[in-house]
Amino acid sequence: MSDRPNTPLLDLVSRPADLKQFSDAQLRQVADELRAETISAVSVTGGHLGAGLGVVELTTALHAVFDTPRDKIIWDVGHQCYPHKILTERRDRIRTLRMKDGLSGFTKRSESPYDPFGAAHSSTSISAALGFSVARDLGGVTPEGLGDAIAVIGDGSMSAGMAFEAMNNAGHLKKRLIVILNDNEMSIAPPVGALSNYLSRIYAEAPFHDLKAAAKGAVSLLPEPFREGAKRAKEMLKGMAVGGTLFEELGFSYIGPLDGHDMDQLLPVLRTVKARATGPILIHVLTKKGKGYAPAEQARDKGHATAKFDVVTGKQKKAPSNAPSYTSVFGNTLVDEAARDDKIVAVTAAMPDGTGLNLFAERYPSRCFDVAIAEQHGVTFAAALAAGGMKPFCAMYSTFLQRGYDQVVHDVTIQRLPVRFAIDRAGLVGADGATHAGSFDIAYLANLPGMTVMAAADEAELVHMVATAAAHDDGPIAFRYPRGEGVGVDLPERGEVLEIGKGRMIQKGARVALLSFGTRLAEVQKAAEALSARGITPTIADARFAKPLDRDLILDLAANHEALITIEEGAIGGFGSHVAQLLADEGVFDHGLKYRSMVLPDIFIDQASPADMYAVAGMNAEQIEAKVLSVLGVTTIGEKRA
User: Fold this and answer.
1) Torsional sign, CA 163, 169, 172, 178
2) Cα 312 off chain centre by
3) Which residues contact 133 (CB under 8 A, 6 or more apart)?
4) Could you tell me if 235 and 261 are in contact, meaning their C-beta atoms sit under 8 angstroms apart?
């Protein structure tokens, strides 16, 4: 225990109500101890560090002033919630963050009454807070009661349309609602766009919350001593382009900007707002992501996501890599293709590093577009780039592309526009859990007319699929690949353009055919090795395409084997369902083919290592082997003999 920080005041806090015993000076010390405890915990678990360090004082002040869990604090995205979890009866489990059976790295309703609304995708908090406010005013009932609703949203999350949709509605309904804009000039990547510039301008022009409130007539919200000076300042500031305008036009009273690390500013303003606010109010706080921990402050991403690390040096304890990541293979291959074709452009939604497009942006800055956290806009923007004669690659995580699904259908597919969707984080992703798992894209894309859907079985296949997508002008095309390292195969000098809708044979065998779609191929091959020891040599094929299907390959496998099993890292309704439809349409089942489809189970799988998650899903080599034995009736015979 000697490596744990010394936290005498924090040790007296088992729940937020305990903070009310402290003076303001003691609350400042609690915040310092909370920062040390957060750094210590994340050094053991890995996870999102910088975001939490940026809101330590804000977290402490909110829990000291408001009455949680009756008052609802809704953390947008939730990756900044570790200090909140420490204060809300979960400190004893904080070193299980993001681990199997441990605390979620995001807020989660089933975990604690202090997490009133689950998060992990951005820009939902204001909508949720407004919902709680309306429920409160209509007499809604929750076990903890319904008090104030406070949304804490970052400047990056404010770039999404949903945040403005919610503010527009809140301004119209005029419910008492508190929005805290946590402006750290840094979401995951540096924020981009006009809103970010606007917030910077607010800060530059008038960084005094009393004058700002005065200029906009929110004088009554200020503590008494400020009021007279504020009134005098009002005339002086009338002519300035004052920062609160945008928010006030949407119907919010605006206070700010405040120093989000200064408890002497935070505590009185929060107390005043709690005592006096009537309608919707926006408090603009300025913070530093990674605040108070030098290695995070100095990191390019401000310590956004880190592996386990040494607290003293900040050095991360990453296992040495044996193979390049799929993400870097995609990024490098796209740069290579773009060197030969000046029509190739790239679009991402606030994830240039996460999608590997940082490499592209360095080489071709005028052809790379980070649209901020705005997947809907990003997809339609890419559609029009395609209509304008460019070759857009829209690179998004599977789970984030879900947010742009209507645009994929309406703006891309109906118009047959050749947008290339590079879908990262396909399948189960490990510590981020269900919110970030890419479970549904095969199903939600393969049912769209004219969409071509591919999945890379390994990193060499990914190179070929980037080349195939670049060459594909006949409608939209998508290719998916997982998080993490490839399997270590040699990479081709240059990708070859694959024939659309054609799979490949991996090995010929008898009795049972295993038809793999995506990166479970390595597990399929392991299962086949184990089966060969039992005298069973399965045929193995890599489908490559879920749409269009390789009809000839599939019908040949069905005709020449007694059993056919498909394997994919996706939910029910995907590749296996399309294969089953083909077999049914062709009357294959009339002749006794045994068919099984291995898909992700119809549940949300909780965080664990990817191997553990795939074990829960029943998709590791041993389980594929067991499925083959079961279909062929081998296990049954074995049991009878026993």
Assistant:
1) negative
2) 29
3) 149, 170, 175, 176, 177
4) no
Amino acid present at 507? Q
Contact 498, 468 (CB under 8 A): yes
Q: What is the pLDDT at residue 133?
A: 97
Question: Which H helix or E strand runs over 154?
Answer: strand 149-154
CB 596 within 8 A of CB 496: no
Sign of CA dihedral 393, 188, 202, 247: positive
Average pLDDT value for residue range 513-540: 97
> What pLDDT does 191 receive?
60
* Residue that is written with structure tokens 């908090």 in the block: 125
Closest C-alpha among 346, 350, 382 to residue 363: 346
Mean pLDDT value across the chain = 90
| Cβ proximity of 544 and 575 under 8 Å | no
- Taken as a whole, the chain contains a residue count of 642
Confidence of residue 186 (pLDDT cuts 50, 70, 90): low
Q: What is the pLDDT of residue 263?
A: 94
496 is catalytic: no
Of residues 37, 185, 375, 625, which has the active-site annotation? 375
Is 375 tagged catalytic?
yes
Torsion of Cα atoms, 206 then 208 then 214 then 220, to 10°: 150
pLDDT at 158: 87
Q: Which two tokens stand for residue 587?
A: 């009357």
Annotated active-site residue 622? The verdict is: no
Amino acid identity of residue 311, one-letter, is V
pLDDT at 221 over 90: no
DSSP category for residue 309: B
The tally of CA atoms less than 13 A away on the side-chain side of residue 188 is: 22
Dist CA 526 CA 621 (whole Å):
6
By percentage, how much of the chain surpasses pLDDT 70? 90
CB 477 within 8 A of CB 452: yes
Q: What is the pLDDT of residue 232?
A: 40
Catalytic residue among 91, 136, 289, 291: 289
Specify the DSSP class assigned to residue 572: T
User: pLDDT tens for residues 564-579?
Assistant: 999 999 999 999 999 9
pLDDT, tens digit, for every residue of 304-361?
888 899 998 888 887 777 789 999 999 999 999 999 999 999 999 999 999 999 999 9
How far is it, in rounded angstroms, from Cα 211 to Cα 198?
18
Catalytic residue among 28, 212, 403, 627: 403
Could you write out the three-class secondary structure of 494-514? CCCCCCCCCCEEEECCCCEEE
Q: Is the separation of the CB atoms in 60 and 26 below 8 Å? A: no
Rounded distance between C-alpha atoms, residue 97 and residue 108, angstroms: 12
- pLDDT tens, residue by residue, 472-506: 999 999 999 999 999 999 999 999 999 999 999 99
Task: Look at 64-68, 181-185, 426-430, 469-473 and tell me which has the smallest mean pLDDT.
Answer: 181-185
- pLDDT digit string, tens, across residues 269-281: 999 999 999 999 9
Choose among 590, 580, 512: nearest CA to 549: 580
CB distance 434 to 413 below 8 Å: no
Q: Would you state the structure tokens that stand for residue 246, as one six-digit string?
A: 């945008």
Strand bridging mode 545-547 / 452-455 = antiparallel
pLDDT for residue 228 is more than 60: no
List CB contacts of 141: < 8 A, sequence separation 6 or more: none
**Token pair of 303 as six digits:** 């310590």
pLDDT at 638: 45
The Cα 244–Cα 270 span in angstroms is: 18
Residue tagged 């206070």 (tokens): 255
Query: Where does residue 171 fall: left (phi above 0), alpha (psi -120 to 50 degrees), or beta otherwise?
Result: alpha
